[in-house]
Each structure stands twice: as structure tokens, then as C-alpha cells.
Amino acid sequence: MISVIRALAAAVLFIGAPVGLAVPAAADQPMEGSYTYNEAGLPPATWMFSPTCVPVCAVSSPECTRPFGAGGPTGCDLHMSSSTPEHINRDEREMNFGATARIVSGIWSFTYPQPEGVRCPDGSYAPSTDTYAFDDASLTGTHTVTWTPQCGMQAGMTKTPFTLSYNGPLPAPVTRYPLQCSQFGICS
């Protein structure tokens, strides 16, 4: 009888342990690590993502909750740096920048002003505003380029799809929650 009880207890522990030790799904966490950016017509770039999040605290709750849920991470910024191995031509130079992405309705996005973003009819370049929006679950997104009337061109916009592929973790650990918050929402 005792051996049957022990066997049942072991089975419960064996089956229940993975449930208690489950790790949150990747989509519930903000992106972190090194990714390769691929867009037709542009050189590949390495995008490094480093998140910074602020705990979401409820005044009535004695504990802070982490900002993840069905809608994805909230209260997080994604610091991104883009780089290419070479900086020889204009396309490579334009792919070297940094920005901060924020999430809205499950889509991360950031806007970056490009000093030489569009090619003019005379061969020179004019500024543009580039917006990158992407889904961290599918690792796909859209690169939108807009420009004002300049150098003989009318205002315009282009949209080009891109993909991201995971390369690996960041070289240094990230402090995802640098702020400690009290139950009253006071952070230090």
C-alpha cells in the first residue's frame, strides 16, 4: 500500500513539475539579442535589441506584476542598434543607426530620420523619414519611407517588407527591469 502511495506521489510530482517550471512563451517577453535584418535591395544589417521595462504596479496590490500578458510586453522600450560590416556605399552607411522601438497593439515600431533617404531625379539624395514596424513573433515587418516635396519630386511614400532572423544572445547581460517599484507605483 505504501509503495502504491509513493508511486502515485512520484507520478504527480513528475507530471506537475513541468507545469510549475514552465517558462513564459517567447512572445510574452520583449525581444532581446542579435538579429539579421533582410530587405530586398539593401545590404543585410545586424540589429541588436536590448529591452528596458518598467514594472506595472497596482495600487491595491502588494506586489508588482511584470508587464506581460495577452497583448505582449507593455511598459517596455526596445533599444536597437543597426550596423553593417562595411560603411563603403550609401546603402551601408544608411543602415548604421540607433533607435528606440515601442509596442502598440502587438507591433513594435520606431521612426528614424534618414539624411540621404531618397534619390532625387538629378542623382543627389534628399532626407526621408523611415518607419520600421515589425511583429516579434513572426519576425516580419514593413519599412515605410516618406518624404516631403523636394529636389523636383512630389511628396511620396514606399513600403517594403523585411524579415529578421535570430543570431544569438547579446554579448553582455541586460538588466531588463532597472527600476524597483513599490506597491504605490513609486519607482527608484
| Mean of pLDDT | 77
Distance between the termini: 56 Å
* Count of DSSP H/I helices: 2
Strand order of the largest sheet: 1-2-5-6-7-8-9-10
Element string (H = helix, E = strand)? HEEEEEHEEEEE
Q: Which word captures the global form?
A: globular
Q: How much helical structure, as a percent, in the residues?
A: 10-25%
What count of domains describes the coordinates?
1
> What top-tier CATH class fits best?
Mainly Beta
Structural classification:
mainly beta
Compute the gyration radius: what is it?
Answer: 23 Å
CATH architecture: Beta Barrel
Per CATH, what is the topology? Lipocalin
Name the poorly predicted regions: 7-27, 58-72
Please count the beta strands (DSSP E, at least 2 residues each): 10
Which percent range describes the beta-strand content? 35-45%
**Biggest sheet, in brief?**
8 strands, antiparallel, barrel
Characterize the structure shown.
13% of the residues lie in helices and 43% in strands. The chain is mainly β and 188 residues long. It has one domain: Lipocalin, CATH 2.40.128. The strands form 2 sheets. An 8-stranded antiparallel β-barrel has the order 1-2-5-6-7-8-9-10. Strand 8 and strand 9 form a beta hairpin. The radius of gyration is 23 Å and the shape is globular.
Strands, helices and their partners?
Elements: H1 2-20, E1 33-38, E2 45-53, E3 56-57, E4 64-65, E5 76-83, H2 90-94, E6 97-104, E7 107-119, E8 125-135, E9 140-147, E10 156-168
Antiparallel strand pairs: 1-2, 1-10, 2-5, 3-4, 5-6, 6-7, 7-8, 8-9, 9-10
Task: Describe the structure concisely.
13% of the residues lie in helices and 43% in strands. With 188 residues, it is mostly beta strands.
